[in-house]
Design a protein that fits this description.
It is a single chain. By secondary structure, the protein is an all-alpha fold. It has one domain. Helices cover 73% and strands 0% of the residues. The protein starts with 9 loop residues before the first helix and ends with a helix.
């Protein structure tokens, strides 16, 4: 039986997922200006600690990296630059959902929307670069 997706590199997917998870940890950390602003906009107390909900993020990161790798492979992309572009294709779809959810939830602020969309754009580009380099 042949592998259905021969262009998928599991190591690249895991590296991209870890990179997105680490970037998210830094991006939303209260020790960074973006993270502190995000916490203020979300009305999260400064002394709160991450909870069990953080366990879902590695799974989401793996799924996101897999989607980037699939677009990368299907498009016939080669290298880091085209990997970044493949990442942005997936980011457009995810970003559209972030935007839709933010509009549907009237409690979201433009600042919070910019922080979340910024993370999507940067993290998917990073995943695409890693997929492109490790493909």
């Amino acid at each position: 039986m042949s592998f259905v997706y021969p262009h998928v590199n599991i190591i690249a997917i895991l590296a991209a997922a870890v990179a997105q998870f680490v970037l998210g940890f830094i991006w939303y950390s209260p020790m960074t200006p973006i993270g502190a602003t995000w916490m203020r906009e979300m009305k999260i107390p400064g002394d709160s600690k991450p909870g069990a909900e953080m366990l879902a993020f590695p799974v989401g990161a793996i799924m996101a990296a897999w989607a980037v790798a699939m677009v990368y492979g299907w498009s016939g992309a080669h290298g880091a630059y085209q990997g970044m572009l493949a990442g942005w294709v997936v980011a457009m779809a995810v970003g559209a959902q972030v935007l839709t959810a933010s509009v549907a939830n009237s409690m979201r602020t433009p600042v919070l929307l910019a922080i979340n969309l910024g993370f999507v754009v940067v993290s998917y580009a990073l995943m695409g670069v890693l997929v492109g380099l490790l493909a």
